[in-house]
Amino acid sequence: MKPVFVRPQSLTDKPFHFCPGCHHGVIHRLVAEAIDRFGVRERTIAAASVGCSVFLYDYFDVDVVESPHGRAPAVATGIKRTNPDKFVFIYQGDGDLAAIGTAEIIHAANRGENLTVVFVNNTVYGMTGGQMAPTTLLGQPTTTSPYGREFGQDGYPIKMTEMLAQLEGVGFAARVAVDTPARLTQARKAVLRAFETQLEEKGMGFVEILSSCPTNWGMKPVEAVRRIEREMIPYFPLGVYKERKGSDAL
Amino acid sequence: MPKLVIRDDRCKGCSICVEFCPKSCLEITDRLNPLGYRPVGLRDPEACTGCAICARMCPEVVIEVWK
């Protein structure tokens, strides 16, 4: 018998601590598969963030540096500049990348740092208890916006991919989702392209992945998966926003 | 016939695989696993085509598919 699907080698055997139905597990698998595909496991260093993704070092069989909240792009910049031959990726959530670390990600992107960024957008602060994030959708109730996010008080949800795609230093920027098998295939391709962008030294490879957070949305896992298509994708359109082609040097 | 290996001691019973199985051959079982969840099981092995959609959608990466 031949394997159709087995656990990627870059994932350790430790069970995930995530809540039932959380998409972090799927996204961890996509990243691990990309590491296996390019054979960069022995020279990969990841910069983990603060949030539900904080235990990255337990789940990936690669070296991981833990960063202060939001500062993973700054930490990764240091790693990549001192060790240009290493493969460096960052894995951040929306509270981490879009709120606390906005300055770090924008300047790392603008400097054209050769990094791969995996940005998990679930419209809420997960680990700290479901507070409103900059990506929280209008009308969405959270623990700090119990009557729903309101424009007059809280502003509009931030679109990070569109924003970063404007910058010259970004080689690849895409937004994908992992809620259906077809979109999962697209997401896999986007993660692979973001890895390639770094290996070809074309600047920052940025992938935003729309994901669910059943616990903080107060939904069953399957309902939460359906909400991505119903509410998130209309506001956060999927697609490749920037791709630096062929011989275009940075 | 394809072979599905489900590590049900790690399954958290989110039922995403059950929802997306095109042949509806998975189900949430009645028993409890050591984590305290009701794990998924293969209800109809004959209907399984080994497409591995369940394994790809599984957030815990507990399903392996061999063919």
Structure report:
The complex is a heterodimer of chains A (250) and B (67). Chain A is an alpha/beta fold. Chain A has one domain (24-243): Thiamin diphosphate (ThDP)-binding fold, Pyr/PP domains (Rossmann fold, 3-Layer(aba) Sandwich). In chain A, 38% of the residues lie in helices and 18% in strands. Chain A has ten helices and eight strands. In chain A, strands 3-2-4-5-7-6-8 form a seven-stranded mixed β-sheet, with helices on both faces. In chain A, helix 2 links the parallel strand 2 (44-48) and strand 3. In chain A, helix 1 crosses helix 8 and helix 4 crosses helix 5 (102-110). Chain A is globular and about 50 Å long. Chain B is an alpha+beta fold. Chain B has a single domain (3-66), classed as Alpha-Beta Plaits (2-Layer Sandwich), CATH 3.30.70. Helices cover 15% and strands 21% of the residues of chain B. In chain B, the strands form two sheets. Chain B has a two-stranded antiparallel sheet. A two-stranded antiparallel sheet of chain B has the order 2-3. The longest helix of chain B is centred in the first third of the chain and has 5 residues, at 16-20. Chain B starts with a strand and ends with a strand. Chains A and B meet through strand 1, helix 1 and helix 10 of A and helix 1, helix 2 and strand 4 of B.
Distance between the termini of chain B: 7 Å
Number of separate helices of chain A: 10
- Rough outline of chain A: globular
CATH class of chain B: Alpha Beta
N-to-C SSE string of chain A, H for helix and E for strand: EHEHEHEHHEHHEHEHHE
Output the radius of gyration of chain B. 11 Å
Q: What CATH architecture label of chain B applies?
A: 2-Layer Sandwich
Structural class of chain B: alpha+beta
Radius of gyration of chain A: 17 Å
Identify the strand order in the major beta sheet of chain A: 3-2-4-5-7-6-8
Number of helices of chain B: 2
The greatest inter-chain interface is formed by:
A-B, 28 and 26 residues
Could you report the average pLDDT of chain B, rounded to the nearest whole number? 94
Helix content of chain A: 25-40%
Strand order of the largest sheet of chain B: 1-4
Helix content of chain B: 10-25%
How are helices and strands ordered from N to C of chain B?
EHEEHE
- Count every beta strand of chain B, where a strand is a DSSP E run of 2 or more residues: 4
